Amino acid sequence: MAKRENAGEIGDPRQGGGTLRFRPRIGFLISILIGLLWFGTIEFVVSADLLWGDWEQELVSYQRWSYVVIAAVCTGLMLLGVRREQLEKSELVREAEARERTLFDFNPDPALRLDADGVIQAANAAAIVMFGEEGDGLHGRTFVQTVVPDERAGVVSHIRDTLMGHPHHFRVTMSVGGGHIYAGIAATPLFQGARVTGVNLIVEDETEWIEQRRALARNERRYRSLFDNSLDAKVLLDGQSHVLEANPQACQLFGMDEDELKRFTREELLDMDDPDTAAATRYRDEHGRFFGEVRIRHRDGHAIPVEVSSVIADAEEDGTDGYVIVVLRDIRERHAAELELRRSREELRALSGQLLAIREEEQTRIARELHDDLGQTLTALMIDLDRLTGYDLGPRADALLEGMRGLVEDMVANIRRIARDLRPPILDDIGLAAAVQWLAEQHQERMSYRVHVHMDREEYRVPGKVATAAFRIVQEALTNAARHAGAGNVWVTIAQGGDGLGLEICDDGHGFSSHEGTSGGRRPLGMLGMRERAVQLDGELRVNSTPGEGTCIVVRLPVPDGEEPQ
């Protein structure tokens, strides 16, 4: 800064100075004006005859000498002005060189100075640090030697153009410190007068920038590959929900090309008449993301169910959405498959219900036939045997008749038991409560555990199919407790409340874990049968079991209104 101020004092025109530069010229002009005024005055006095005698002669002589004096003064002032200008120019040149040297040495970017042959003559501190060599190691080398061989011809061409007075900016790959860097070079010509004597190079290490650009390009290629080749439809929206990009699957899903899609907003592409879709858009706006099912509009107007995942990918600093990535999956085929599966399950359930009803009817018929036909036949046989005992057939025949009569009695008892197991008459004649109590007594007599029955009323007025299902579930649960649980006690609880009948059958057996409830990947048929009976009536069945703590089966059977109770 001090040099600039000194430059202004000696007449640097860029600093607004100019005192010494212009003062000799002004003195020269003033001298000429004074001389002309002096000459003019003398000529006026002489021509007007204002003086006489010796005065006139002396004045003319003085005039002649004045010419010499004024000419000398003017010449001296002119020479002084020229000298002053030379000194000022020399000072300005020195200042310019000093400034250029300062800029060169203290430039934060590496700087090199080349001569007309491209040989490095100077290198600043940043260049020495970048090349990892001392300054003497760079001096005398050509700049082209620092460039990888494949790019040297292009560098030579750029330097030649710069030596012709044309600045250049180019990029090269340089060999530095045993490795390579990508550098941006700013080449400017160095002038001495009107002649170019060398080249000044500013080197900017762009390796990190180049690597970032390459990484960005790789990421962009990966993004484009994932975006365009995804099996799902993908749409990119801006903060105002306008379409920015759409992959081919999205174009196919909406029946439009990408340019057409870009003319629509999110609301125009969704079926906003669908309440679930409208609710989904509100949820996404409030929470910033959404995953679920919505309906979109095809180009021809029909609605398409899709599974959508919408998330804000980049939010602005003010909190507004940057852009939103929306992934859409056409679920029409899945809906059709789910509908077909639901229909198949309903058909299987209906078939299962029909089979259960047929089985109950068949068991009732078999029980009735056993009781009415075979039971009556055996009863008649017993009567005939009793009649034979009235005859004197001898001891041996009496013994045979007594044996036959015992066998027939056992057969009658077994037939009655089988008939009761198939369809206990008490269920139809008296009701569910009495049937469950009878069933508990039967199992307690035949099995090794005690059965505790708790019911909240003496009788349950429920439809026949509900009573049958409840009875069969209790029967199967008691059988399972005997076969698999090793229980010492079983508790049966029945309660009716609201619009349903509740059952709970618990035991103190060894229980089982969830993975032990299956055998060979299949559930036990008894458990499946109980669950199926509950499902047939739109009920539910839960099994709670822990190893060593027993098992508890909880059933809820709805009781429909309007059906005739049992």
TrEMBL record:
The keyword Transport does not apply. Keywords: Coiled coil, Kinase, Membrane, Transferase, Transmembrane, Transmembrane helix. Residues 96-166, 219-261 form the PAS domain. SMART domains: HATPase_c, PAC, PAS. The chain crosses the membrane at residues 26-45, 65-82. Pfam families: HATPase_c (PF02518), HisKA_3 (PF07730), PAS_4 (PF08448), PAS_9 (PF13426). The keyword Transferase applies. CDD domains: HATPase_UhpB-NarQ-NarX-like, PAS. It comes from wastewater metagenome. NCBIfam families: sensory_box. Residues 472-561 form the Histidine kinase domain. One of its GO terms (molecular function) is phosphorelay sensor kinase activity. One of its GO terms (cellular component) is membrane. This is PAS domain S-box protein.
